[in-house]
Every structure is written in C-alpha cells, then in structure tokens.
Amino acid sequence: MSLRPNFLALAALGLITAPALAMVGNAPVALLQGRNAVMIVGSGGTFCTGSAIATDLVLTAAHCVQPSADYKLVEFDAAHQPKLLDVKSVSRHPNFNIQTLLAHRATADVALIKLVSPLPAGIVPAQLSASDRAPQVGDRYTVTGYGVAVRHDGKTGGTLRSAQLVATGKPGNLQIRLVDPETDGKTSGLGACTGDSGAPVYEGTALIGVVSWSTGPKLEGGCGGMTGVTPIVLYRAWIADEARRLGSPLP
Predict the structure, then answer these.
(1) Above 60 in pLDDT, residue 155?
(2) In Å, what is the CA distance from 187 to each residue of 114, 180, 215, 222, 225?
(3) pTM of this prediction?
C-alpha cells in the first residue's frame, strides 16, 4: 500500500505543516532541540507519537502500528517543511490485544519501529527507566506528544507540546491513569488526545511509559479527562531483546 496519498491528505488537514497546537488543555510548546519525541504517520490516514530510544529505533504504542499498513516518521526542516523518514520494520509486542485496549484495560501496548537511516541529530534517544518502584497516587509525570489540541480538528495537531499530569486511581505496573492536577479529570483540562497515542511519558528525565488511551471529563468519551499509560516496566526485557535483534542495542 502506498503511503503518499494519505500522507498528502494529512498535509491537507494541517497535521504536518508549520507548528500549530497539540495536546488538549493549552499545554505549552516543548523544546525541539534535544527532544526524544517523533511523529508517526500511517498509510491508513493515522498519526501517532513515538520516542527515540536508539539512533534508529522508536518506541510507540502497539495499536499505532497495524500489520496491514505502512508507516513513516515525519521530521521538519528549519523552514518547517515536512520530510518523510523511511521505516525498515515494525515489531509489536506478541501479547498485545486490541480488544483489551479498547476496554481501557491493561495490555502490552508497546511496539518498536526500526528506521532505514539514523534519526536527525536534534533527536536524542531517551533513557528507559530502570526503576521497579510501584507508582503512587499523586506521582507527577510529563507527557509529550504531537496530538491535536481540539478533538476532531486535525489542523490543531503537529506541534510538540508537554503536559504535567499526576497519577490517580490505583496505579500499578500494568497501567497508570493520569489526570490534570488542576481538574482531577472532572472538568476539561490537560491531557492526551488524537495523535498522542504512543507518546512518551517521563518521570523526571527517564522514560517510564507510553500513552495508550484517553477519556473526556468524568470518564466520558473524548479528551482532557484521563490519560491512560502503559508502563514499560514489564516490557523492558522484550524491548531490549528486540532492539538487539534489530541491530539497534539500547545505549
């Protein structure tokens, strides 16, 4: 399947033009130099976020990379013109289950994208967290993604933004649920939205998980309520083994 027609459709929607808004709740623009996050587009018209974990390897959500589609990364030059980066292969965790994910339950929602060539110098591989500490309610995390700022409006996506969110509910090593500390998920606030799937989630500077889903306020459909995260703690060994198999050992 050719990626080009759908890539141009994304351009028409404004997803890959000069910077717009991204991540709902008026999240601030993130620094681009030295970042880990990258934007991923698919031949089915989808777009997601991922994070570099080696010079030619990107970690993202498994649901972002379906076997029937083709994928490329999008980079912007100094004039904000998009450039496509070729993908060599995609590896999804074998235990990922899409139906479990759609029910907002925990599953192995992690995947690796191997690139044909190394990423640009401005993208720095993230350091995977080595901590096994169980998350606690109130723990603070940073989520960074290219997703839309207004649900259903693709023209508001394409700029990297960050949000500071906190853990709520009963966080654990299977799933972490995050909310805007100012709204507690009860009214619209900061949070992931369309295009933020696969986005890196950091504790300090260490990468601890990827965005898997979101809800609106009070767990209704939409964005700006709760952000669901798949922690990588249970999948670190698979990520490291797969990276070595792909010829991209982690730093």
Answers:
(1) yes
(2) 39, 9, 11, 12, 7
(3) 0.87
